[in-house]
Structure formats: C-alpha cells, structure tokens
Structure to design on (446 residues):
C-alpha cells in the first residue's frame, strides 16, 4: 500500500477537487468541452481562488485526454483573464471571480448553460404543482440589531447565550471514551434523555405531565406546526386563528387548503365568537404574537368548555412561555381537564437560541405515532448529537439557570420598548402585554 508523503499530501489538500467529464464522441472538440465546463464552474462560484486547480497531469488522467489539451485550455483561460498562473504552484482562479458578480453570471450563461436553448429548457412553471412563494412570509432584515427600533420579535441578544456552559457540555460529550449513541442513526426515535428532561424538568413548569410516547422532538415549533397541519388538515378543514397573529401559521394551514377563520384578539386574548363552527383552533394563550397578550382565565375556561360540545381540537403554541416574566403565569391549556383535546407545541431553542431549531409536540400517543411516521418520511429525526447535548445541558442545571438570568434581564428592562438592544421609546404610553416579556405592543401617541 502506498501513500502520500508530507509534501504531496499538502499539495493535494490545497488543490481543488473537480469531477469533470468530456465526451470524445460529442460534437464540440475536447478543448471546447473542457473550456465550457470550467467556465460553468466559474460562473456558479464553485472554485476558490486560494486553491489550485487540478494539475494538467492529474486532470488529463481523470478525463483520459492528453496533458497538452488541458494545458492549452488552462493557458487560454489565463489569456482571457479567468485564471492566473503561479510558477511552480499551478493554475488558480483569478481573485476577481472568486465571488462571481451578476454581470459575469449573465455573460457566461450563454456560453456555458446548455439549457439556455428554449427548446431544451425544462418548463418548470408547468411542472411545479404548488407555489409556496405566493404566501407572504415573515420579513426580518439580517442587520435588525443595527436598527434603533427594530420592531421585530423572536430574536434574542446573543450576548446572553451561556457560551461557557454550552462549550462545557460539548467538551464532555466529545471527550468521553464511552460509547457515543448520538453518532448512530436513531431511525425515527428521539434521544431518551431529552425526552426524560422534558417530562421531568420542562413540561411540569407548564403544568403538563406526559408519558414518553406522548412527546415528539421537532426542528422547532414551525416544523411541528407543519407536521400537524399535514396530518390533520385537508381542503375544507376549518381552522380558527388569531388576528393579528402568526403569519406562518396562516401560511401552513392555507397551504393544506384549509378554510381560515380569523378571530379578533383583545386584551383577554382570542375572541371566541363564531369559532364554534371550526374543527381546530390555533391559539397562543400564554404570550400571543404579536400583541403579547395573555389569555385571561375566563376566556380560557370558555374556550375549554366549548371543545367537547363542538368536537373541536386546540393546537396550543406556548410561545415564549419559558421566558415570560410573570411568576404567577397560568398553566398551559394542555394542563387542563381537556388535555386530550389539546395538541401542545413548545420550543427549547426560542429562549436559548433560535438558531438551534429544537421544538416538541405533546399529544395523544396515537397522534404522536402518526407524526413520528410523517417526520420519518421527511428527515427521520432532528440531529441526535444536538438532542443529546441539549439534554445534558438541561440535566446539569444550565438551562434552568440561564432561564432565571434571562427572565431577570426581561424584568429589568421593564417594557418591550426597553430591551437591551433597543433604546427607550419616549412616545410609548402603554403595552398590551400583561407582564414583562421579550416582545409586546406599545400604544404610541398620535
């Protein structure tokens, strides 16, 4: 068995790996085929200026053509300004094309893209069976933190993230000499330790007591909502939603062909007039988006009372409940006597870091079984390593400690317009939120 010496290995590591193909029996000559293929790689930005292209010898062996043919193509691309040649080093992408501008993209398209021919181009407009782009999504600028008054929700001050504790858990997992089950494919199962932590540390805080078979881990609550809608809704299904409310929830149900009924939100939460005719009610009783209102006890009782009589199901989105500033907050609807008629969605990443994308569903075991099977068809399960790390983070008390600090930060801010990333808003006079919370509505002076 032979191997690379140190110098050869270093050269291989610094060389771009390309899988190219030319056809000696095709119409264009080999030089023209190779030139077009390389120009296409430049056009789409697949080459890095710091890595050498394959040597003439290596590329000629790969393609089964002469080294001279490759050398001629390389030199021509150097003359045209697409490549540069470095003595005793090789050929490199010209730095000007490391991130191809739109002008280069359009100018090279005609030379490199065989689908530019209207006859051979596929008619995607005819083939695409649905248009998710037709649904208005949530608009949040990437540089929102630079705004004096961003007026957005669902984003956290990254300076609050418990980086040292998160790093400690990660180090322990990676340095352990024991078997690492999180490296295996769990097929459709979740990390048992994370399920256990949810059952014993997270859900009881909301008054929920669930068995393991009644819990499913998802890639955030948005993913949970999508799975639920796919499983339960079809054309004509009647769904009541809050107005104003969560735009992406409306999109998910509309995409399934459901009939949406918008219910006004007042100071007590979602109004119930007319909702009795709906099959499902999607509500955020703990911290409504975007108003920040908490559903009153009286409104909750009225909602729960109508469920068995109208054979209705509530989809409860317990948004921001973990970091709500009210120590006397009401328990989740799922904690009520009508628990069987409540599908509960929660998130572990919303309070910790939205980028983690970890949520969960608590529902009847039959519903969870079907959601699990549906999830398996999409992505089997959320990353096992992330699940296990998060489970360890919770079990060691880091998560609870972080929540306390986070809630103190919110309480100290006083109002949503005085969060750390936002300067105090002098024109604000009142908020719709019933307790300090990460977001809410402020009434402004006319």
């Amino acid at each position: 068995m032979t191997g690379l010496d140190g110098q050869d290995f270093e050269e291989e590591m610094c060389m771009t790996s390309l899988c190219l193909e030319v056809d000696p029996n095709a119409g264009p000559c080999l030089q023209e085929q190779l030139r077009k293929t390389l120009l296409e790689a430049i056009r789409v930005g697949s080459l890095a200026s710091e890595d050498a292209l394959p040597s003439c010898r290596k590329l000629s062996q790969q393609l089964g053509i002469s080294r001279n043919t490759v050398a001629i193509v390389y030199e021509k691309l150097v003359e045209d300004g697409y490549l540069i040649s470095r003595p005793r080093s090789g050929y490199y992408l010209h730095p000007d094309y490391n991130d191809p501008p739109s002008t280069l993209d359009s100018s090279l398209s005609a030379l490199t893209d065989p689908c530019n021919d209207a006859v051979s181009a596929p008619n995607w407009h005819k083939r695409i069976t649905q248009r998710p782009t037709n649904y208005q999504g949530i608009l949040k600028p990437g540089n929102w933190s630079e705004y004096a008054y961003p007026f957005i929700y669902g984003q956290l001050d990254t300076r609050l993230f418990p980086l040292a504790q998160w790093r400690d858990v990660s180090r322990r997992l990676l340095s352990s000499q024991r078997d690492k089950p999180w490296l295996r494919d769990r097929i459709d199962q979740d990390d048992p330790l994370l399920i256990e932590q949810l059952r014993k540390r997270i859900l009881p805080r909301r008054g929920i007591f669930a068995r393991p078979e009644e819990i499913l881990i998802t890639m955030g609550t948005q993913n949970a909502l999508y799975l639920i809608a796919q499983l339960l809704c079809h054309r004509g299904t009647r769904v009541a939603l809050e107005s104003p409310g969560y735009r992406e929830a409306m999109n998910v149900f509309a995409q399934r062909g459901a009939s949406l009924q918008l219910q006004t939100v007042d100071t007590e939460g979602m109004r119930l007039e007319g909702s009795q005719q709906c099959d499902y009610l999607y509500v955020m009783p703990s911290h409504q988006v975007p108003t920040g209102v908490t559903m009153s006890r009286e409104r909750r009782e009225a909602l729960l009372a109508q469920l068995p009589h109208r054979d209705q199901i509530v989809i409860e989105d317990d948004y921001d409940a973990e970091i709500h500033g009210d120590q006397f907050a009401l328990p989740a609807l799922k904690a009520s006597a009508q628990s069987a008629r409540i599908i509960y969605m929660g998130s572990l990443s919303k309070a910790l870091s939205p980028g983690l994308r970890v949520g969960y569903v608590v529902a009847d075991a039959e519903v969870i079984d079907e959601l699990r099977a549906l999830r398996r068809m999409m992505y089997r399960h959320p990353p096992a390593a992330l699940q296990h790390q998060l489970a360890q983070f919770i079990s060691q008390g880091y998560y609870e400690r972080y929540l306390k600090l986070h809630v103190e930060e919110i309480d100290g801010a006083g109002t949503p317009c005085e969060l750390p990333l936002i300067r105090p808003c002098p024109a604000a006079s009142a908020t719709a939120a019933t307790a300090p919370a990460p977001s809410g509505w402020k009434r402004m002076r006319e």
Observations:
- Residues 347 and 359 are 4 Å apart (CA to CA).
- Residues 398-413 form the longest helix (16 residues).
- The chain is about 35% helix and 10% strand.
